[in-house]
């Protein structure tokens, strides 16, 4: 390697290492679960120089690549420096991911590489990758109802842990299907913690710029810029509706006019409907009338909980993600 390239790598390593340490101190008083530092050579070799053939998923802010390091399959996240509103978000992603990695329903952070303009994340590999916008998987295999319910329950557990396991309540602010990875055993793993913000102890909210994906942003947050637990509860409710309907949060309605899934569900509910919301694939695999009755009980309870999360008509809103996780566990037991 040339001296100039080596000098640049060392400079980036020092800069990124300092900024990451600063983020860790700010967020968690310097406490972190151990993770490795990988070299740029390891990352480039694993991704075949960030080859398109290795892409798992691609977004405006980052690209996920598959790779192999030391005979272990991994997922590698490379940031785009062009679209980030604040580069500190990349360091926050590592900071919070390292704290969350102990939870079984979080995409485990194995380490990072500090030798690029922004640190690349190295995480565990998941067989099915992230969910698509409509709550499916990239292979096109239709997810059965029990898997959709399992995904919702497990992500609710992960978000509940994020909200309650640390001295300050941490709000994700970017809960949507594409941030949920699915492993070979259909276990769900929450990822992408770069929009996370902490609510100081003793406070009910923190004010900050609106962050998130269209269709998943809490309207109250949008208008007040106040971040509370309700921000994640709302987003999670939309994820539940996506899993239930098989539609994206914003989809092409009549005459291909973009339509909000929330608005669609509200319209159907106003007409006293139900079946129009539910993906027909959910009714597959039933062996008799008894199974159908139980499935309808589950699906109805799931929909009612989702509507409470998105505060439909603001009737009996959900108070916490812990409540959501407990209710989903009870719904699962109905089968």
TrEMBL record:
Mind listing the GO molecular function terms for this protein?
ATP binding; protein serine/threonine kinase activity
Q: Where is the Protein kinase domain?
A: 50-319
Task: Provide this UniProt record's keywords sorted from A to Z.
Answer: ATP-binding, Nucleotide-binding
Q: Which GO terms describe its cellular component?
A: cytosol; nucleus; plasma membrane
List membrane-spanning regions.
none
Q: Which GO terms describe its biological process?
A: cell surface receptor signaling pathway; defense response to Gram-negative bacterium; regulation of growth; regulation of immune response; response to temperature stimulus
Q: Which SUPFAM superfamilies match?
A: Protein kinase-like (PK-like)
Any Pfam family: Pkinase
Family designation: Belongs to the protein kinase superfamily. Ser/Thr protein kinase family. ZRK subfamily.
Name the chain's protein: Protein kinase domain-containing protein
